[in-house]
Specification:
Number of helices: 2
Number of strands: 12
Strand content: 35-45%
Order of helices and strands: HEEEEEEHEEEEEE
Number of domains: 2
Oligomer: single chain
Strand order of the largest sheet: 7-8-9-10-11-1-2-3-4-5-6-12
Largest sheet: 12 strands, mixed
Shape: elongated
Structural class: alpha+beta
Helix content: 25-40%
Radius of gyration: 24 Å
């Protein structure tokens, strides 16, 4: 009788463990499917002609222009010009009137959502959680497994563009807003800078 009771108890424990594993596997599988769904949305909208105004905690930090594998970043003091085809970069300090020119083989110009996709969606260091909808946005949370820093993306339901990013850690909370225009950048806006009157430094 005791052996039968022990055997029955072991079977129950085994079934409970199996059930827990099935539920856990289902939850992880659903999370992976949801994460992949929003990754595909970003990949579909990964354009190579765009303008982004980046506002950090209510203050405009920089404006970026991308077109024809050329990136221009203007933060009000420095202008960075990168040409992927020419493997050439120019950094201008508009106040000091200096220009630093480099030629490298690994110059990169990312499409609109490539950075978000690689740093978060394809990075195993982050734990993903779907937070639901809020004010016409999907809320997507990524938690760094090592530092516990939390990043929340606000993905616009209508435009499929990330409008806002909130970064939370033990020290502070940072709100980054993105004002994005697609297929709006002209050739003039990404033209190589005129270095007249600049002191040139070359690597």
């Amino acid at each position: 009788m005791k052996k039968k009771k022990v055997s029955k108890a072991l079977r129950i424990i085994f079934l409970v463990i199996v059930l827990i594993l099935i539920i856990l596997g289902s939850v992880l599988g659903i999370k992976a499917l949801i994460k992949n769904k929003y990754k595909k949305i970003l990949e579909k909208n990964n354009v190579h002609n765009y303008e982004v105004v980046q506002i950090v905690d209510g203050v405009q930090e920089q404006v970026s222009y991308v077109r024809d594998n050329v990136l221009v970043v203007d933060d009000g003091e420095n202008i960075i010009w990168i040409n992927k085809k020419a493997n050439k970069s120019i950094v201008l300090n508009t106040e000091r009137k200096t220009a630093f020119i480099t030629t490298e083989d690994d110059v990169t110009v990312a499409a609109l959502n490539t950075t978000f996709i690689k740093e978060y969606f394809e990075n195993s260091d982050y734990k993903f959680k779907y937070l639901g909808k809020e004010n016409k946005h999907y809320l997507l949370e990524f938690t760094n497994k090592e530092t516990d820093e939390i990043t929340i993306f606000y993905l616009n339901i209508d435009t499929n563009i990330i409008d806002k990013q909130i970064i939370k850690n033990n020290i502070a909370e940072t709100v980054i807003e993105y004002q994005v225009k697609i297929n709006s950048v002209s050739k003039e806006e990404i033209a190589e800078p005129d270095l007249t009157d600049y002191y040139i430094l070359e690597q």
